[in-house]
Amino acid sequence: MKVLFTASEAVPFVKTGGLGDVVGSLPQALNDKNVDVRVMIPKYGDIPEEYKQKMSFKKSFTVRVGWREQYCGIEELNYEGVTFYFIDNEYYFKRPGLYGFYDEAERYAYFCRAVLESLLHLDYKPHIIHCHDWHTGMISVLLKEFYQGDDLFKNIKTIFTIHNLKYQGIFPKEILGDLLGLKNDYFTTDKLEFYGQVNFLKSGLVFSDVITTVSPTYAEEIKTDYYGEKLNEILKIREKDLSGILNGIDYKKYNPLTDPHLFFNFRSSLITKRKNKEKLQEYLDLPQQEVPILAIVSRLVKQKGIDLLECIFEELLNMDIQMVVLGTGEKKYEDCFQYWAKKYPEKLAVKITFDESLAHKIYGGADIYLMPSLFEPCGLSQLIALRYGCIPIVRETGGLNDTVLSYNEATGEGNGFSFTNYNAHDFLYTIQRALRFYKDEKVWIKIFKNALKGDYSWEKSAEEYKKIYKSLLGNVD
After folding, report:
1. Helix H or strand E segment including 70
2. What are the Cα distances from residue 126, in Å, to 2, 37, 460?
């Protein structure tokens, strides 16, 4: 069984969020289950030179982008047993950064067409093209419109995975013919038209054979008006083809027993974890006191529930705690955290940056992880936190609802704490509840061990993806 993943990013080459983590790690788990998965992404200028030097040139040809003929080169690199293909076009991709350019529609219209054209030039013929997020949304419609007459393509199936429904790739109507070469027949509400414009993600929903998203709860939420981002009616129409499969995390990268970024490695020792906390306090210039450390490692954006934290920040910082915040995002949130850090320098450490090593140190040393998201398709941070015994406090939405079970005093079950309503007082009450249990050593050890014994790997999820592939292909091995 051969499956081609196509996406706009993948670790370790380029990453802006969870999409890159998934596309970088899920193929390895599937390969371990005898699925021949390969990955195709753009060759961005931001890919580190160490990887570029290892790439080998495969082929060059031209790709039609509307009326244009554009160069395309394919380069290949094997990374940890997975073959990655890179679509090379310096005009579109040799720029600082990945997204946010004036010609975004043209860049990813080109990429979608280049993915399909490349299959004519590779010795790899996939049974399935597995597309991820809006950047690859046009692959399914282009496959059906331009390639079905070719024997190579006529039996290829497509899967489209929604990592975040909010980001859709919406552009003016003119791109339909100018960039995609499609007729106006496609500009209808049951196809690509979206409030007078063209929507890349909608194309993936309408034309792909199967749709998945990254948690069971999110698969249900996006069929509602509140979470559906104006696409919920289409998702309801296709609900028989829609399923939610939880993301996992890379257990080699996130392993407290071997993690090179930690001050002290540990498996299930709360004592060693607290040694990491002492070193973390020293590293961040916080007083080395035995108080709970609350942590946030996140993009600082509205989706992550930062508004709730703003409402309760001073009350929180007047408690017997310390806090650490790592991340970048909207300026108003960055400024807010920096203001409180200056006001409470012995309570709050704020790092407005992206620092992978520090992130691992925080997961390894902090006691409680805050994730009060407005919405969260799956979330990886809470999974990493659980892996490192950093107890999450989450809002019950999306994948947070599927992975964090609120502690139950009566049964002793639960690996974290949660609240339902998007409400600052509910969030504060839940933090206060967690802090009461933190003071009870026996209870906290129980919650800590519950967190560590969960399975947050790709093992189960990879098996679910394999079942979907088999259901599409029948008897293909």
Report:
1. strand 68-79
2. 5, 9, 23
Helix H or strand E encompassing 132: strand 128-132
Reference 448, options 297, 253, 298, 292; nearest CA is 292
Question: pLDDT class for 474, splitting at 50, 70, 90?
Answer: confident
Structure token pair of residue 107: 């860049």
194 token code pair: 């979206």
- Determine the Cα–Cα distance for residues 376 and 388; give it in Å rounded to an integer: 21
Tell me the per-residue pLDDT of 162-187, one tens digit each, with 9 for 90 and over.
999 999 999 999 999 999 999 999 99
pLDDT at residue 476 greater than cutoff 70: no
- At 230, phi and psi to the nearest 5? 70, 10
Q: Are 193 and 170 in contact (CB under 8 A)?
A: no
Residues forming a β-bridge with 194: 197
Note whether 403 and 397 are within 8 A (CB).
Answer: no
Reading the block at residue 220, the tokens are 């249900």
Given this model, what pLDDT does residue 477 score? 63
**What are the backbone angles phi and psi of residue 243, rounded to the nearest 5°?**
-140, 155
Nearest-CA neighbor of 326 among 338, 309, 318? 338
Q: What is the mean pLDDT of the chain?
A: 96
Residues in contact with 260: Cβ distance below 8 Å, sequence separation at least 6, in sequence order: none
Which DSSP state fits 163?
Answer: S
**What whole-number distance in Å separates Cα of residue 5 and Cα of residue 23?**
7
Choose among 280, 430, 270, 447: nearest CA to 357: 280
Give pLDDT tens digits for 308-358: 999 999 999 999 999 999 999 999 999 999 999 999 999 999 999 989 999
What are residue 325's phi and psi, to 5 degrees? -125, 130
Residue 149 has what pLDDT? 87
Token reading at 267? 């498996």
Tens digits of per-residue pLDDT, 93-145? 999 999 999 999 999 999 999 999 999 999 999 999 999 999 999 999 999 99
Residues 6+ apart with CB under 8 A from 9: 15, 16, 19, 20, 23, 41, 98
Q: Domains in the chain, start-ordered, CATH in brackets? A: 2-248+459-473 (3.40.50.2000), 270-452 (3.40.50.2000)
Phi then psi dihedrals of residue 369, to 5 deg: -115, 125
- Adjacent-strand bridge partners of 63: 70
3-state secondary structure of 435: helix
- pLDDT confidence tier of residue 431, bands split at 50, 70 and 90: very high
Report H helices in 101-222. Answer: 104-118, 139-142, 175-178, 200-207, 216-221
- Cα–Cα distance, 215 to 223 (Å, whole number): 13
Q: How much is the pTM?
A: 0.94
